[in-house]
Every structure is written in C-alpha cells, then in structure tokens.
Design a protein that fits this description.
By secondary structure, the protein is α/β, with parallel strands linked by helices. It has two domains: 256 residues, Metallo-beta-lactamase, Chain A (4-Layer Sandwich), CATH 3.60.15; 36 residues, no CATH class. 25% of the residues lie in helices and 25% in strands. The strands form three sheets. The protein has a seven-stranded mixed β-sheet, with helices on one face.
C-alpha cells in the first residue's frame, strides 16, 4: 500500500516567487489528505498532477493567513470536477467562520458538502481503513495543533516452511492462516495462525509540526515517525527572535527528532523569508549536528514512506 508525502509549499509568513507557503499533501493508496493550505497550494497540486478531487480531509494547524489563504481556491476548484463526496476540514476555533465567510463573501459555487469540525480537545480526529489521524497541542501565538497519521499494526510475516512442516497443504488453507484464523486438517488436527505467522509488524507514521515554540513534550507525540515534517524557521543565532514569535530553530527541530526516538527522517519546513535558497544550508547544518537524517524540504518535493520490513 503506497504512502507518500508531497511538500506543496515550504515557506513561512510571506509567499516568495520561488517558495510557496506551507502546505503538505499525504497520499495513501490514492486517497489524499491536506495539512494546511497556504497561498500557492493549488499551483503545486496542479504542477504535481495530483487530483484535488481525491482530497478527503484537510487538517489546519492554526488560523494564521500563511496557513489558510490557499483554502478558498481549493474549495472552488473542487466544484469544477463533479465532486460527490463530502470534504472534511479539521482545525482550531474560527476555522468554520473563515470558511463560511469566504463562501458568502465570494459567492462561491459549491456543489458538494463541506463539513467543518473544530477541535476542542486533542486526540483522534479522523479514522480510516487501517489508520487514524491524531491532533496534539502546540504552543504558538494562537491555538495551534500538530498532527500524526498512524497506521494500525500489520500481521506478521507468513512462514510457508512452518505451514508445510505442520502438514498444511499449499493452497486456500494458507490464506486462511494468513488472515489470522485457524484451520482444521483431514487428520483432525487444528493449526492456528500463531503457529505459522511471525510477530505483528508496525504500520507507518507521518507527523506534521508547525508553528510552535520548542517544548520537549512534542517529541513524545511524534515518536517513531517514518517521516517528521517539522518547522525550522530560524537558525540558532536568532533564538531570541524565535522565542519571541513562538517558533523553532532548526537545531530545536533536530532535538525533537533525536529525543523522540524511532524517527527515520526529519524534513525541515516553514522557513523564514529572510533565508535565500543558499542560506538554507545553515539551517540544515544546524539540524544535522543533532539529527543527521535531516533534509531540507523544497516545494514539490516527494517523500515515499516505506514499510520498515
């Protein structure tokens, strides 16, 4: 089952000619989930040839313009593709007002159902087939949430040599054992699934963190992420400014990834517009000193998220 993350925009505060505002799209077996929608979101979706009709839900971190100004365009575009399924939006207070005011003021033509659910308590906000999306609190100048998409554990690996040694003939009975059920043999014996299956294997996890003051508890929320997308807005020399504006440095993002445990890759995002493309290497270097498996996310970069085993 494919799982991929697409960076639609990696900038913070100001839309630049070469850097759209922060937005990440997660595709799981053809179903799309959008995390934030800054200005330029729909442009990257078009350039990546992704089908916005397939966006099932949108998860908004907080109500600052650089994270929501791309949403009206997404809502209007979805009316041009004969969408029939509802579109769900999750986020902090005032999200429903923002969506409704835009619909009314712009006289939007919307031919599908929009369901907005404001988060009042952190926790699971979406359940799908074999996975869920969970929100957790961040610390910014407004109510802000991070999100984690977590898959359920997978069955262990099937060992055909064990099945054969126990006298289970190759064929349909093997499929029954792989599904977790027991089988009865012609000699009256019963073979259980546990006798031929390995230990359960973990599913995959994607975490998204922006905008927030650094605090150690974030690490617990994102632990064991195969991909952690986390803001690294400033370099350490600007720590005072980061604290004042309730943002993180790249070094602090690396610290979260290191302390969380089980993080396979950290992708920095939400860069201050003060940094040119060349300057961003300073952020990368600072994060890598703490967590070597760090990359700089760039607009329209793709991250396949593979099973560990």
């Amino acid at each position: 089952m494919n799982l991929e993350a697409f960076i639609l925009g990696c900038g913070g505060m100001m839309h630049l000619p070469h850097r759209h505002l922060t937005s990440v799209l997660l595709r799981r077996e053809g179903e799309l989930f959008l995390f934030d929608g800054g200005e330029g979101t729909q442009i990257s979706i078009r350039r990546l040839n992704l089908r916005w009709k397939k966006i099932t839900a949108i998860f908004v971190s907080h109500m600052h313009a650089d994270h929501v100004t791309g949403l009206p365009g997404i809502l209007m575009l979805s009316s041009q593709v004969d969408r029939e399924e509802p579109l769900y939006l999750f986020g902090p207070p005032k999200l429903a007002d923002y969506i409704e005011n835009n619909r009314r003021s712009l006289d939007m033509y919307i031919n599908y159902e929009i369901i907005v659910k404001e988060i009042t308590e952190p926790g699971i906000v979406w359940r799908g087939d074999g996975f869920h999306v969970r929100s957790f609190p961040l610390r910014h100048t407004k109510t802000c949430y991070g999100y984690a998409m977590e898959e359920e554990a997978r069955p262990g690996a099937f060992h055909p040599e064990l099945a054969s040694s126990l006298g289970v003939p190759r064929g349909p009975l093997w499929s029954v054992l792989q599904s977790g059920e027991s089988v009865s043999l012609s000699d009256g014996r019963t073979v259980t699934s546990a006798e031929v299956m390995g230990q359960a294997r973990s599913g995959r996890k994607f975490s998204y963190v922006t905008d927030s003051l650094y605090f150690p508890e974030i690490a617990r929320e994102v632990a064991n992420s195969d991909l952690l997308v986390c803001e690294g807005m400033f370099e350490s020399a600007l720590l005072e400014s980061a604290v004042e504006k309730k943002h993180m440095t790249a070094e602090q993002a690396g610290r979260i990834a290191r302390d969380a445990g089980g993080i396979r890759r950290l992708a920095l995002i939400h860069y201050s517009p003060r940094y040119t493309e060349r300057d961003l290497k300073r952020l990368l270097d600072e994060a890598r000193l703490v967590f070597p498996d760090t990359v700089l996310s760039k607009d329209r970069m793709e991250f396949p998220i593979e099973y560990v085993d």
